[in-house]
Each structure stands twice: as structure tokens, then as C-alpha cells.
Design a protein that fits this description.
Length: 445
């Protein structure tokens, strides 16, 4: 019996895929089809699959051509599979000509003619798109637009900034057609809005965008008052709109895998969490005045994320210790008391410390090195160091494409309950900012 193997994503399954599987099947007696996992596609930079791995497996199964289906989840698996299944021929489309010649060492490699005029990418472009209007033209907006170009169903259709000349330069730089002279002009060009303006304008822009019927992705810190956060979500829910906060760490593969791994008990019961996130300012950047907030406003949301994710939102109290410069906190340490655990974070805005995340448990601990908030790697460590494990996950580019993809999926699928960063967690973050601004349990150093 001659065994053939081939691999693919098979997203939006189409005639080209079918033809390939048929041609591969005709090469022998038994066809094994490897379907890539969502994570493996992320790892190899394929951001835009519309169907999840189960849907893609079902599509391949429905052809009746596959005698066996395996999932492909890591680089190098092809060699393992060819040896494990005693494969005679590896077949794949001619778009890969030469790329898999190394497999000749293990079996015959055949490149089959690719079907012209059809591809998943083209099919995706025929699907509805998320037209985003960007408010703000600062550094994060620049990074966002660059990252968005990697997310297929997203188009940046307009930009608005109160300083029109900066907006024009931004649009020229990024080849964005429309410079909005007003919010209404922006709204006329988009179905969604990304807010990257100074944080004190977030509430106003969010509210206006939602009331204009636009989905919203807002930069952190979202708003600094829990009542405002609740009001905005109520507007979003009553108008069936997506409202998400661009806290990129929450959407990144490594942090999401860290969450599920630790929740599965690999380090036993979690007793303590500590996270740091500090920034030294450029010479000349000043602390006073409105140009910047302080350490809590600028970095607090990132460090609250693991605490709320792992310990939940029912802390007994928080004590803050802040080093002030005038009326602004340069450095804040916050200690959260929970019933059976304790959590703390250090944030700096003009003070620097090691930016790692440590999660302590009854069987071991997790160490995420700096900068943990954009990590692609973490370690699970035990008393017996031989048991330590390292985990690596993709963190491609500036890491904003993961939040953009989640936002686009929420808009396209009208699924507004994102589990990576829930509404309740966002309310809790706003509440902590509110408590802090009211100086409750705040000890100034
Ligand atoms: N294909 C084709 N004609 C098309 C489109 C795709 O023959 N018009 C073939 C591809 O050459 C590939 C298979 O269909 O052999 C699956 O294509 P994709 O789903 O795009 O998968 P791909 O990203 O090519 O992954 O480990 C994964 C493999 O490396 C291939």
C-alpha cells in the first residue's frame, strides 16, 4: 500500500484545496492529510484564518478523500509523521516548489500543480471587512496601523486628530486615503473606531463613537472611573456594538497559554503574584502637567491584568505606596489582600526596576522575564530544577495584531464577550484607578 501525506490550513475550503487532495490521493492508495492548528498557523505568521481547526478538519473530512487526518502543530512535525506513518510520498502544491526538498531524505517529494485563480486570501477579501477609523496619531497609533496591515479583514479607512497637519502627515506616511476634519467625517468612513488619543479624552471619544453606532477598541488606560466604564459598556450592549480595551498582553499567545497552564494546576495553588512594569522618561519629558499621567495611569493596567486574571476581582483591600514628584506618582507599589492570597505590583513612570512577573504556588512557580507584558516565553520552575520547563509562543511584530484580530472577529461575528479581557476585569481596573485617585489607603513616600 502506497501512503501519501500532505498538509495545509484549508481555510475557507475551496476548489483549489479539493483539487490538490484529489491529485495527492491519485498518487497512491492511502492519503493522510495534516491540518494545521490555529496556534501553528499563528506561529508561522498566518494571522487571518477564518475557520478554526475543527471547522477546517471537518471540511477536509467532508471531501471523503482523506483516509486519515492528523493535526500539524509544530515545525518539524512533517519528518516525524513521515517516519511514524511509513509514508512513501510527501505531496504539496507547486507554490511550495523547492521548500520541502529536505524531505527527500525521508520519502519521495512531489509538487503538484496549484489551481490558479483561487485562494483563501482572495476569498477572505470578499468577506465583510472591519473599516477602522483611528483617533490619535501618536506612537501607538503608528504601531497599530502597521500591525493592522497583517490582519486581513481590517482596513484603516480614516484618521482624525485635532491637529489636522499631524493627521495629514500620518495619513501620507501610512497611505491612508481619508483625513477626517471632524469626528462626523471620521464616522462616515468607518464601522469601527480605534482610540489612541490622550487617556483623558478616552471617555468622550468612546461615548461619541458608540452613540454614532461604531464598534470601539480603546487604548489603555480605558477610563479612570468605574461608573464611566459601566456607562460605556451599557451603551455598547444596548446598541449591539463591540467595545474592547487594547491591553495587548491579554490577547498575546504566551500570556493566554500561561493563564490556562497555571489554572490547570502545574504550580499547585497560587499564593502570591508580583508584577512590575516601569518606564524611564526621555530627558526633557516632564512629569508635571497633563502631558503624562503617573505610574499608576500609564502602567497600572498591565500589572493588574495577571492579578485579576488569576485571583479574580474580590480582593479585601489595596494599599498603595507612592513616590511622588509634585502631585504625580513616579513610582507606586500596590498590595492587594485576598482571602487566601496576596498580590502586588510595582509601576514606575520615571523610576526603573526589573519588569518581570512571578506567580508563586504550592508546587512551584512561574517566572516570566522582562518585559513580561510582551513575552513570547516563560518558565515553570520547581524545587527539583530538572523538572523545570520552558514554554515559547509566537509574539510577532509589535504584538498588537493579536488584539486587532480579536477585535475584528468580535465585530465580524457580532460576538461581544471577549474572555481574554472581560468587561468585569475592565470595570475592576477602572475602579482601582478611581480608588487611587481618591487617595484611599495611599501612603506617599
Ligand atoms: N492549494 C492549491 N491551489 C490553490 C490553493 C491552495 O493547490 N489555489 C494547495 C496548496 O499548495 C497546499 C494546499 O492546497 O498544498 C493547502 O493550502 P493552504 O491551506 O494554503 O495551506 P499552506 O499554507 O499552503 O500549508 O504545514 C502546512 C503546509 O506547509 C501547507
Amino acid at each position: 500500500m502506497k501512503k501519501i501525506i500532505t498538509y495545509g490550513t484549508y481555510d475557507l475550503f475551496h476548489q483549489g484545496h479539493y483539487n490538490l487532495l484529489k491529485r495527492a490521493k491519485d498518487l497512491g492508495d492511502y492519503l493522510i492529510v495534516g491540518v494545521t492548528t490555529d496556534n501553528f498557523d499563528l506561529e508561522r505568521g498566518k494571522m487571518n484564518t477564518c475557520n478554526n481547526v475543527m471547522e477546517r478538519i471537518e471540511a477536509v473530512k467532508a471531501t471523503g478523500l482523506a483516509d486519515q487526518i492528523v493535526i500539524e502543530e509544530y515545525r518539524g512535525q512533517k519528518i516525524d509523521d513521515i517516519q511514524k506513518y511509513g509514508v512513501d510520498i510527501f505531496a504539496i502544491g507547486s507554490d511550495w516548489e523547492g521548500y520541502f526538498d529536505y524531505l527527500n531524505e525521508f520519502c519521495q517529494v512531489i509538487y503538484l500543480p496549484r489551481t490558479q485563480g483561487i485562494s483563501s486570501t482572495e476569498l477572505r477579501q470578499e468577506r465583510p471587512t472591519v473599516n477602522i477609523g483611528v483617533i490619535g496619531t501618536g506612537s501607538i497609533a503608528n504601531r497599530f496601523v502597521n500591525e493592522a496591515s497583517n490582519v486581513n479583514s481590517v482596513i484603516i479607512s480614516s484618521v482624525y486628530n485635532t491637529r489636522i497637519e499631524e493627521c495629514s502627515v500620518f495619513c501620507q506616511t501610512h497611505n491612508i486615503d481619508h483625513v477626517a476634519n471632524s469626528l462626523d467625517e471620521l464616522f462616515s468612513k468607518c464601522n469601527s473606531v480605534y482610540i489612541a488619543s490622550p487617556y483623558k479624552t478616552h471617555y468622550d471619544y468612546c461615548k461619541k463613537s458608540l452613540l454614532a453606532g461604531k464598534n470601539v477598541l480603546c487604548e489603555t488606560p480605558f477610563v479612570l472611573d468605574s461608573a464611566e466604564a459601566i456607562e460605556l459598556y451599557e451603551i455598547a450592549e444596548s446598541n449591539h456594538l463591540a467595545l474592547m480595551v487594547a491591553l495587548k498582553t491579554a490577547y498575546c499567545p504566551a500570556f493566554r497559554h500561561l493563564f490556562s497552564l497555571v489554572k490547570s494546576g502545574v504550580i499547585g495553588d497560587i499564593v502570591e503574584i508580583n508584577a512590575s512594569s516601569t518606564t524611564l522618561l526621555e530627558e526633557g519629558d516632564y512629569i508635571e502637567g497633563n502631558r503624562y499621567g503617573g505610574s499608576m495611569v500609564e502602567n497600572g493596567c498591565f500589572t493588574m491584568l495577571p492579578i485579576f486574571k488569576f485571583f479574580g476581582l474580590d480582593y479585601q483591600n489595596i494599599n498603595f505606596y507612592s513616590k511622588m514628584k509634585g502631585q504625580t506618582d513616579m513610582f507606586t507599589k500596590a498590595v492587594f489582600r485576598y482571602d487566601h492570597s496576596v498580590a502586588s505590583f510595582q509601576v514606575g513612570w520615571g523610576v526603573k526596576t526589573e519588569g518581570n512577573l512571578v506567580i508563586s504556588g504550592t508546587k512551584g512557580y512561574v517566572y516570566v522575564p522582562a518585559p513580561w507584558w510582551k513575552t513570547d516565553y516563560f518558565e515553570v520552575r520547581y524545587e527539583d530544577q530538572n523538572q523545570n520547563k520552558k514554554y515559547f509562543y509566537p509574539y510577532v511584530g509589535d504584538g498588537l495584531r493579536y488584539e486587532i484580530k480579536d477585535f475584528a472577529l468580535a465585530v465580524l461575528n457580532k460576538d461581544y464577550h471577549n474572555t481574554n479581557l472581560t468587561m468585569q476585569e475592565i470595570f475592576a481596573m477602572a475602579k482601582v484607578q478611581e480608588i487611587y485617585s481618591k487617595e484611599i489607603n495611599l501612603y506617599k513616600l
